[in-house]
């Protein structure tokens, strides 16, 4: 792999280009500069969109077997260079090297699924003679690519979340322009390199590095961009929805996920699952465990197990195999989390573990008795902090779980199937994990939420549905 591509150039319309103005990419662990990427301009984005028009025409004409072949080759490329991909993820972001390897494995899986789903973009025959007077008509519908997709991706999964945009887009015959996070752009550029090495026609994929405030509005509002796929925060999502105009919008906007622990559950297993569910990726995880509602009879037992396991969670150097948790993405985010915890403590919360900051590092933190007027009680923490609450029963837990603006995923621990189905029916979420924490996902399942957690669904098959439209074909057969 060429280090010249990594971090120094961006891919626009099939060409790797640099710019005089650059953005520095830092390792949040020690603030060392890893590399620089071009600071794209409005002119660059407009050029990328013009090039993508041709890319969309080329992509739509690609036979399905070619799409399958190219995506598999891209997955092969990532697998062959997985060490470099993992190191890049671990350096530019918050993940430990072990977490980064896991993300690379998931990226490969996402691409493999995309290749397989390309062969399953099916339509159906339509019985037009279901209406009297239409006896001579027959037909069908098929799904066609929508054209150009604009994708905006966050820092917390800098490789696999980009794969979740590019893989389905290529599989469904679209062109795509990716604007990755300025904090973690290197992994996205590496994935673009994989598709180039796989022989993807030029202009089908562009990866543009730059400030969202400078180039984001162009991508979102341009009439040639027929869909915006965004993963990020709620406020930004609302702003994009307001500006985008008449086009498809797919959004995953985060959450403050609840987990319910009932008295009939295995308490130790529940705690064992919820600790990494809360603290993996330094808590910067949209489905990470934030609120845990525990039935009163087992509250003390669960709390004791959870605190003990939290204190064993090792924070430190991301590159060490023994490290469980690295820093937040930057010191500013760590200070924000620290301030939110201090706000909760001032309002009456109890600190059970953690609560210490060192630069961008923030220790795994457990709070209880957090009042509803604390910011941390109703907003997405996006940091390594979890809140424990005793509840009277399942009804109490469901009501409190639903009493927020978000609804992405939830978890419940119970050995009572009736309780599990009751929670499945009544929790306002896009997914419920039974006897697992909220932090569970495979790349083939539909992924998305309700309320402030987003619009539409990701997961390869379901993203392809979002990225295509049905076209009806009808024949009037004359006798």
Question: Can you walk me through this structure?
Answer:
The protein has 479 residues and is α/β, with parallel strands linked by helices. It folds into two domains: 10-254 and 454-472, Aldehyde Dehydrogenase, Chain A, domain 1; 258-442, 3-Layer(aba) Sandwich (Aldehyde Dehydrogenase, Chain A, domain 2), CATH 3.40.309. 40% of the residues lie in helices and 21% in strands. The strands form six sheets. The chain has a seven-stranded mixed beta sheet, with helices on both faces. Helix 12 links the parallel strand 17 and strand 18. The chain is globular. Mean pLDDT is 96; it is low at 1-6.
Outline:
Keywords: Oxidoreductase. The protein is an alpha/beta fold and 479 residues long.
Largest sheet composition: 7 strands, mixed
What would the CATH topology of the largest domain be?
Aldehyde Dehydrogenase, Chain A, domain 1
N-end to C-end Cα span: 64 Å
Our count of helices gives 15
The CATH homologous superfamily name of the largest domain equals Aldehyde Dehydrogenase, Chain A, domain 1
Class from helix and strand fractions: alpha/beta
> What is the CA-atom radius of gyration, in angstroms?
23 Å
Q: What general form does the structure show?
A: globular
What is the CATH level 1 assignment of the largest domain? Alpha Beta
- Unreliable stretches (pLDDT < 50, length at least 5) are 1-6
Mean pLDDT: 96
Function: Part of the sulfo-TAL (or sulfo-SFT) pathway, a D-sulfoquinovose degradation pathway that produces sulfolactate (SL). Catalyzes the oxidation of 3-sulfolactaldehyde (SLA) to sulfolactate (SL).
GO molecular function, one term: lactaldehyde dehydrogenase (NAD+) activity
Protein name: 3-sulfolactaldehyde dehydrogenase
Catalytic activity: (2S)-3-sulfolactaldehyde + NAD(+) + H2O = (2S)-3-sulfolactate + NADH + 2 H(+)
């Amino acid at each position: 792999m060429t280090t010249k591509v990594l971090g120094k150039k961006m891919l626009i319309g099939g060409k790797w280009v640099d710019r005089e103005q650059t953005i520095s990419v830092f390792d949040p662990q020690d603030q060392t500069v890893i590399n620089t990427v071009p600071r794209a301009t409005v002119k660059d984005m407009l050029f990328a969109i013009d090039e993508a028009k041709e890319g969309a025409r080329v992509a739509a004409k690609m036979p399905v077997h070619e799409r399958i072949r190219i995506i598999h080759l891209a997955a092969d490329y990532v697998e062959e260079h997985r060490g470099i991909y993992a190191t890049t993820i671990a350096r530019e972001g918050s993940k430990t090297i072990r977490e980064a390897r896991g993300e690379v494995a998931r990226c490969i899986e996402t691409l493999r699924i995309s290749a397989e789903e390309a062969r399953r973009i099916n339509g159906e025959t339509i019985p037009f003679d279901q209406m009297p007077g239409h006896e001579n008509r027959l037909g069908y519908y098929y799904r066609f690519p929508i054209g150009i997709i604009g994708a905006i991706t966050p820092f917390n999964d800098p490789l696999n979340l980009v794969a979740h945009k590019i893989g389905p887009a290529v599989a469904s015959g679209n062109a795509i322009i990716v604007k990755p996070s300025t904090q973690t752009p290197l992994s996205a550029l590496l994935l673009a390199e994989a598709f180039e090495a796989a022989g993807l026609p030029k202009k089908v994929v562009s990866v543009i590095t730059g400030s969202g405030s400078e180039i984001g509005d162009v991508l979102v509002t341009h009439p040639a961009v027929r869909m915006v796929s965004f993963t990020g925060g709620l406020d930004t999502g609302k702003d994009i929805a307001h500006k985008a105009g008449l086009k498809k919008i797919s959004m995953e906007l985060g959450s403050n996920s609840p987990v319910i622990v009932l008295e009939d559950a295995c308490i130790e297993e529940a705690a064992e699952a919820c600790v990494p569910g809360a603290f993996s990726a330094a808590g910067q995880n949209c489905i990470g465990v934030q609120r845990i509602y525990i039935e009163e009879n087992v509250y003390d037992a669960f709390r004791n197990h959870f605190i003990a396991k939290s204190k064993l969670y090792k924070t430190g150097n991301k590159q060490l195999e023994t490290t469980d948790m690295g820093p937040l993405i930057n010191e500013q985010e760590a200070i924000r989390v620290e301030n939110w915890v201090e706000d909760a403590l001032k309002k009456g919360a109890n600190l059970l573990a953690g609560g210490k900051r060192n630069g961008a590092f923030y220790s795994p933190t457990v709070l209880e008795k957090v009042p509803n007027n604390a910011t941390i009680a109703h907003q997405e923490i996006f940091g390594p902090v979890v809140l424990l609450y005793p509840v009277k029963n399942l009804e109490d837990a469901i009501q409190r779980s639903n009493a927020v603006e978000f609804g992405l995923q939830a978890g419940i621990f119970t050995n009572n199937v009736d309780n599990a189905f009751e929670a499945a029916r009544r929790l306002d979420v896009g997914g419920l994990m039974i006897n697992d924490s909220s932090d569970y996902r495979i790349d083939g399942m539909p992924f998305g939420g309700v309320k402030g957690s987003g619009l539409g669904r990701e997961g390869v098959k379901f993203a392809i549905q979002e990225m295509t439209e049905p076209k009806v074909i009808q024949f009037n057969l004359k006798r």
